[in-house]
């Protein structure tokens, strides 16, 4: 359940606890959400950056 809530929170861009059309797209397909892509890249960099110099 927490996985879905986390995914919902990432999709709910205006934090109104509802998903509008674009937000629903981001909920169903987070790969289309610019913030999700940025978060994924930052996570990948931190995983590969062994000496923490980014």
What profile does the largest beta sheet have? Answer: none
Strand coverage percent: under 5%
Order of helices and strands: HHH
The average pLDDT is 86
What is the radius of gyration? 13 Å
Helix and strand content put the structural class at: mainly alpha
Shape label: elongated
Q: Distance N terminus to C terminus? A: 34 Å
| Low-pLDDT segments | none
> What is the count of DSSP helices, taking H or I runs of 4+ residues?
3
Q: Count the beta strands.
A: 0
Range of helix content:
55-70%
Protein name: 45 kDa calcium-binding protein
InterPro entries: EF-hand-dom_pair
Structural write-up:
The chain is built from three helices and no strands. With 54 residues, the protein is mainly alpha-helical. The mean pLDDT is 86. Helix 1 packs across helix 2. This is 45 kDa calcium-binding protein. InterPro entries: EF-hand-dom_pair.
Topology overview:
Layout: H1 2-11, H2 21-28, H3 34-48
Compact description:
By secondary structure, the chain is mostly helical. It contains 3 helices and no strands. The model has no long low-confidence stretch (mean pLDDT 86).
